[in-house]
Write a structure and sequence with these properties.
Length: 730
Amino acid sequence: MGGWLGTKELSDMFGVKENSIIQSLRRGKFTQIRQVDGNGKGRGGKVWQVHITDPAIPEAKRAQWLLAHAQTPAETVCALPVAPAETAVAVAAPKALPAVATLKKWQRDTMDARIVFLRLVERAEATGIGVTRAIRTLVTQARHGALPPEAQGLVPLANKRSGTDTKKRTLSERSLMRWWSEWNKGGKQAGALAPKDVEKTDLPPWAPNFLQCYQVPQKISVAHALEDLAAILPAGVPMPSEHQARRFIAKYSKLEIQKGRMTGKEFKSLKGFVRRDTSKFEPLDICLCDGHSFKAKVAHPVHGRPFKPEVCAIIDAVTRVCIGWSAGLAESSQTVADAYRHAVTVTDQKRYGGIPAILYADKGAGNEAKANSDPFFGMYARVGSSYKTGIPGNSQARGLIERMQGSLWIRAAKKLITYTGRGMDEQVQRKVYLTMERDVKKALKEGKEGKKSELLLSWQEFLDFCAAEVEEYNRRPHKGLPRITDPQTGLRRNMCPLEMWSKFLADGWSAEVPDSTELGSLFRPHVTVTTRRGEVRLFGNIYYAPELVHYTGQSVIVAYDVHDASQVWVKDGDERLICVARFEANKKDFYPVSAVEKAREERLSRRKKLKELQIAEIEAEACPAIETAPAVIELPPETAQLHQELLARARGEVVDDAPFLPADDYEAWLKLREEAKAGLPLTDQERQWITDYEETQKLIKPVGLVAQGFDPFGERYRLWLEKKRAAQNG
């Protein structure tokens, strides 16, 4: 009563506990307070009370309280003199009003304050005073500050006008009469008293042209866009200032303004998304696989120099457990296959894992390799997993494992001084790089084996480091898992992935794992080839078994070991074993090349070609700034003659009785060597010619068969060379 609120009412008003209100009272947050007798928590059993006009109570909450308690006795709110009743304003039919929820805060506060004064007019009218006289009395009391404190403080808020001097604001008879009329016409709905929003919503005339310049993928600045706008702005349209353009961007849709500046997955990152619920699934129902370029440098396992390895991980979507991982030199099917093998294997040291029902991954080269993804003979299908891929460029659909990259691999990389990812200090990164370069040069000079710098982890150290980081990730609380009470600390926290996995095991769930006797055959890649007279070809190697003679011309399934190329397992269409074919069992000349070695050779060839292109580009850019006189070098007569003949043949000139020049058959030597590597049969003369040609290159003097003018290809090679040169010339 009288505008005094107890602690319970204040707790309901502020949405906090009653004890919080009492603590605020004791700290002196409220100033207009009193203690009254009662069964309260104050000193002597008294009850704390705060007046509604206390400055600590926001104006909006004060207005809401006054509106809710407008039926309190009249003498406690406003004492108006009694006078003969006057005719009230007729109530008109309600009109369309704005929804209260769409109003801004200042509009709602002003609306609530005006309702308080109109409720006072209503109560005065109920005593027999006319509306006009009641309004005049109310205006007089407001001008002289005679209104109750809770109502007097709402005068500046109800009389919402521009300017900063709110102390001089008061109520006017005209304004109150207008509010009364609008309120009755609106059916006494609150929205009728809300002031109109003066904000402009129309687009300025220059907006379409400005967006045309601003919404480009180069993400140019506002100043740059205005420079481009000046060239295309139509005549008669005013040129905006930079301040106007920035205000326009600030009020424009944060999503629409980025159209054209962002595309693909970058633009999708601003849009709404769907959170995928896994509560209805069990472990291993859905697993996600993804590769990641490790953001720190380690020692290469072959030459020991710094490089960034490729890591691949498979996680369970329900428990978030990383059930399998692997590391390799680069993205490859073998790295993915090894991670998958690790995921389905359960041992005494690794008690989690199993066969995923669905393996969800992107369209990476390692995931899409036929040896893994083939629907009939791929590793996923043979083990029992259904392989699914997402839409390219829509990485947020695989958000579970994309976030895992940051919490596992990037977190691990940041523990190493060789970290090169985002956030690394540039000066430290440069010092580390220069130190590694200096260490590598010193190690090469000294002929040091293994890693070339002490800043680098060796390959085995890196693998042990990754294993420890995966174990730490599986035992760290995960925000995507339910919350529990920690049995040791008694505090609430999220479950760890392994705790979630153990919970399912305790509830009776068990993982499906392949039989130990099947692991060897299950993880051998399978391909389909055609037999020819007892032979099958794989990676340029020839495998022979007499049983295959009966299958000549038929397609058979060949299983091979990635690390052992000495034999393959040949099966029929029903995957029944026909035989084990040995490497060139009908020949004895060459050694086998395993799949790993072949991939290594191909990678080496690609890297060499890239470096050759870079060297050619550097030589093409070389341009001496100062012309100097060439140095005169005396050459032996036979060497000078050979150089002259080489130069003449390069220019296309005819040299009479010129000896055979090795430069002419350089391409022949390359092709012949490639055929030898591919396993094609060569004659003894051709083998000897390759040796003599390489010796000729060293001595710059024809020797052996090269000096005799032996042509290794004859007419067949000449036709091939003419076609090649014709293709090069256009």
